[in-house]
Amino acid sequence: MNTILVTGGLGFIGSHTVIDLVKQGYSVIIVDNLSNASAKVLPVLEELSQKKIPFYPVDIREKKELEKIFQEHQIDAVIHFAGLKAVGESVQKPLSYYDNNLISTITLLEVMEEYSVRKLVFSSSATVYGEPEKMPLLETDLTGATSPYGRTKLWIEQILQDLCDANDAWDVVALRYFNPLGAHKSGDLGEDPKGIPNNLAPYITQVGVGKLEKLHVFGNDYPTSDGTCVRDYIHVLDLAAGHRAAITYLEKEHCRYEIFNLGSGSGFSVLEMIKSFEKAIGKEIPFVVDSRRAGDIPVSYADTKKAEDKLGWKVQKTIDEMCADAWRWQKKHPDGFEP
Ligand SMILES: NC(=O)c1ccc[n+]([C@@H]2O[C@H](COP(=O)([O-])OP(=O)(O)OC[C@H]3O[C@@H](n4cnc5c(N)ncnc54)[C@H](O)[C@@H]3O)[C@@H](O)[C@H]2O)c1
């Protein structure tokens, strides 16, 4: 397998995965509607990889446009990152989330079927574990969702399972990511959320560069060592390598449908993350403690054994590297890709 179509390839995780794939010798084609990415990411990717990368500014719900891409290229597999991802926004705008995430995936699958491209890696999320009762989280644990965003991931997983059950020619890997952060070593590629960040890392780094005044910690009365929520953080470059491992797996195995957790297997509290960022940034991060946020669970971290055994993949990078890399990007580009 040599040619990979990456949907959402100008976004945070997609862009880092594109670099990784190109460096490993894959030909990559990107499709992204730029709804949550800047067109300026493309020249950065081409500069870092020293390769020209075909890019289509297309919404993948537009079937005809998507078909043109499959006509123009002999695609071997697809990595499907494209989607809306903000939990809070999905509660406010459920129809946008159902329309964008579900219709885009179904359209993509139809076009893949039409062109006999039946190998897919899908971006799922740890959010599909809902409100779990025990840790670490295993791929076989019960699922549930507490937001429209989470439901789109769960339903897409179900659609993929049904598709693989119906047609033996499909091979699909769903990757349930934990909490990605960090950035490319160059400091020229990183997370660039539009508006106020939803995730902890870009919020802290924006406080670090003075764009935001202080961090809001949601609850310090959880049953954890310091009362703040505990999450499993993973460097975006480790996550990118996980996608490459999934592609290699699809090359070798007729796996039908498989789910893998991609996380570090360890949990860090919000206060521990603040400390690690303070070390990277070299100054204190001011924060206030607010009340708990609806839907937040106290603790979440992955059991990573299945990914280690079957994909031969595990994380390499530490929390300190994640924070240092995220900070390098933010310091070098305080206003992200669009100053
Ligand atoms: N970042 C996280 O914390 C996290 C955690 C778990 C799962 N995920 C999932 O991983 C995937 C990538 O996440 P990310 O953090 O890189 O997000 P991102 O928003 O940076 O990237 C998604 C990209 O998809 C594009 N896109 C959205 N809808 C599209 C459409 N209909 N057609 C074409 N392009 C479209 C956006 O412009 C964006 O560039 C998403 O599916 C997300 O739900 C992310």
Describe this structure in words.
Helix content is 40%, strand content 16%. It is built from eleven helices and 13 strands. It has helices at residues 12-23, 41-49, 63-72, 87-92, 94-114, 148-166, 200-208, 236-252, 270-281, 305-311, 319-332, and strands spanning 3-7, 27-31, 55-56, 77-80, 119-125, 171-177, 179-181, 215-218, 230-231, 233-235, 257-262, 268-269, 287-290. The strands form four sheets. Strands 3-2-1-4-5-6-11 form a seven-stranded parallel sheet, sandwiched between helices. A two-stranded parallel sheet has the order 7-10. Strands 8-13 form a two-stranded parallel ribbon. It is globular, with a radius of gyration of 19 Å. The model has no long low-confidence stretch (mean pLDDT 97). Nicotinamide-adenine-dinucleotide binds next to helix 1, helix 5, strand 5 and strand 7.
Terminal CA distance = 38 Å
Which ions and ligands are bound to the chains?
A: nicotinamide-adenine-dinucleotide
How many beta-strand elements?
13
Which value, in Å, is the CA radius of gyration?
A: 19 Å
Q: Major sheet: size, sense and barrel closure? A: 7 strands, parallel
Number of helices: 11
Q: List the uncertain runs.
A: none
Strand order of the largest sheet: 3-2-1-4-5-6-11
* Class from helix and strand fractions: alpha/beta
What is the string of SSEs from the N terminus onward? EHEHEHEHHEHEEHEEEHEEHEHH
Shape type: globular
Helix content: 40-55%
The fraction of residues in strands falls at 15-25%
What is the residue-mean pLDDT, rounded to a whole number? 97
